Each structure stands twice: as structure tokens, then as C-alpha cells.
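Ticket #4471: structure export looks truncated?
Reporter: QA, pipeline team
Priority: medium

Steps to reproduce: submit the single chain below to the structure queue and open the exported record.
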Amino acid sequence: MDEYRKGWALRYLREAKAELEAARTVPYMSSSLVLESIRKSRNAIYYSLGEPTSIEILLREEAENCNPSNDSILRFLVELESVVQQLSQIEEVNDEAMMNQADVLVKVATDIVETFTEE
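Actual output as written to the record:
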């Protein structure tokens, strides 16, 4: 992984953790902060795996494909993108459930980023 992508992956991961922590301390803003944490976790994963724009194109193509891939990483990324899209469109949010999902995603993103950046 080049230094550029590594830097962005680590930055997005730090920001995802900070947004999640802020959501815990500022309840009236928790929904938007949790959603930002989820998006930044996704971005950290994308930068760890490759060029985010290329990954987004690949995921759009996969989502349109009638025969889904057997690739577990690709399936994970498609599901992740689906969750992000669903959460961003929900009007009434269960803050606790959303916070739990964000918590899990930040942990997964941390594992992926640390694996690929070796940090």
C-alpha cells in the first residue's frame, strides 16, 4: 500500500472513532454523528483495499449483476454499501441499534486497516 492511501485510511479510521465517541457524548446529534462514523469507516476500508473510486465502480457493477460473485470480500463490500445506503435514508432512527452497528463496523474497519497498513 502506498503512503497516500495509508495516510487516508488511517485518517478516516481516526475520524470514524472520533465521530462515534462524539455521538456518545452529544445525544441530540448522535444520529448524524453515527452515520458519519459509518461512512468514514467504509472509506477507511476502501482506502485500505485500493482506489476508492475503482471500488465504488466495482460495487455498482456487482449490485447490478444478476449473478452475484462468490468472492467473500466483494460480497462484504456490497453488503456494507447497502447498509450505509439504508441507514442514510432512514428517517426515524433507533440510536442504540445504529450505535451498535457503527461500533461493530469501526472494529471491523480497524482490523482491516491495521492488517493492510501494518500499524
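Status: closed, not a bug. The export was complete when the record was re-opened. Leaving a note from the reviewer for reference: Residues 3-117 form a domain with the Four Helix Bundle (Hemerythrin (Met), subunit A) fold (CATH 1.20.120).
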